[in-house]
Specification:
This protein is of the alpha+beta class and 336 residues long. Helices cover 29% and strands 27% of the residues.
């Protein structure tokens, strides 16, 4: 079975008609997801606003502008505002493999490489170049204004992966936390400080790499202290597998072993990226929601990023010269 998804750029320094049209396309699906346990199962507008003001106050003006754009004519907007706060959202479970490539010859700056694994029909496919809070941010979008991975003009790159636990708690959805650190952090140290103080609702691993070559993999969870590690590669568990069924379904241990071997080998960046496009790192279980939707290569020293798919040329962008474009990607699911 083949599924098609369009990847589109959105270049808009401040939220305006482009973001509004993007939100209107995605809102029916997001509304159903957000309200799947009923409106009373989600925090109120006042609780959501209070959480943003307490933990990410610099984002509040942007949130208010987005709520205004998302609010239907004639009033309302309560559900939209609560959704856009991403405070205690429903569970968000993806796959993903990510790591930091270090040039064995010491000639090239490090790169952050990653596969994003999820269900094709749930992918926004929006590649945003924005300047919402003064700093240019280039990121793959999620939850209307969150980020799956991205790089900013200071030369900080970040990506996320699910941490392999079902525990949910009081905190923000990770895409908004990633957006926040890309908006305001200038390096890995500042990003780590944000991750240490902003609560998250589920367990995730965040890989960070900055223009100076400083990097870290940070384990965050709603019920455990933040842990800053030097894990060069990570998939969908942290120190050990805690959700065996998920790990088996997504081949998490096999992917980690493969990525660790690639990053430890005397491999070029092209060779490491090539491994992302082949099994076991590349997955085709799209009907089960764990297929690889794109591979990304971030080179923050150059403020550059590439998206890759098997059999297609790289789609290259930079923070300084982000060009409009669109790609139609076909995903063919493996036998289930």
């Amino acid at each position: 079975m083949a599924l098609q998804v369009a990847f589109r750029t959105l270049i808009e320094d401040q939220p305006s008609a482009g973001w509004q049209a993007m939100f209107e396309r995605a809102w029916p699906g997001y509304r159903a997801w957000f309200l799947r346990s009923g409106a009373v199962g989600r925090p109120s507008y006042l609780e959501s606003r209070r959480a943003l003001r307490e933990h990410m106050p610099e984002l509040v003006p942007t949130w208010e502008k987005l709520v205004e754009l998302a609010t239907p004519a004639g009033g309302g907007g309560d559900v939209e505002a609560r959704f856009l706060s991403l405070w205690c959202p429903p569970a968000y479970i993806a796959g993903c493999s990510q790591g930091v490539w270090l040039d064995p010859k010491g000639k090239q700056p490090p790169a952050l490489i990653r596969n994003y694994d999820f269900a094709p029909l749930l992918l926004e496919g929006n590649w945003l170049a924005t300047r919402w809070t003064g700093q240019r941010v280039v990121a793959l979008g999620d939850c209307a204004w969150g980020a799956l991975d991205g790089v900013n003009e200071s030369g900080l790159a970040a990506s996320l992966s699910f941490g392999g636990r079902t525990v949910a708690g009081t905190g923000f959805g990770i895409p908004l936390v990633l957006r926040y650190l890309l908006e305001f952090a200038r390096n890995t140290g500042e990003a780590v400080a944000i991750l240490k103080r902003v609560p998250v609702n589920m367990t995730y691993s965040v890989t960070l790499l900055d223009a100076q070559g400083d990097w870290a993999t940070v384990f965050v969870a709603p019920d455990r202290p933040v842990e800053v590690t030097r894990n060069q590669a990570v998939t969908n568990f942290q120190h050990q597998v805690e959700w065996p069924e998920h790990a088996r379904a997504t081949h998490s241990a096999e992917r980690l072993a493969c990525l660790q071997a690639q990053l430890a080998a005397d491999a070029s960046l092209d060779e490491a990226v090539g491994a992302l496009l082949r099994p076991p790192l590349f997955q085709a279980s799209y009907l089960r929601g764990y297929g690889t939707l794109y591979s990304a290569v971030y080179q923050p020293a150059e403020r550059q990023v590439e998206l890759h798919w098997p059999g297609t040329g790289a789609w290259r962008q930079s923070v300084d010269a982000f060009a409009p474009g669109e790609r139609e990607i076909t995903y063919t699911s493996s036998a289930e």
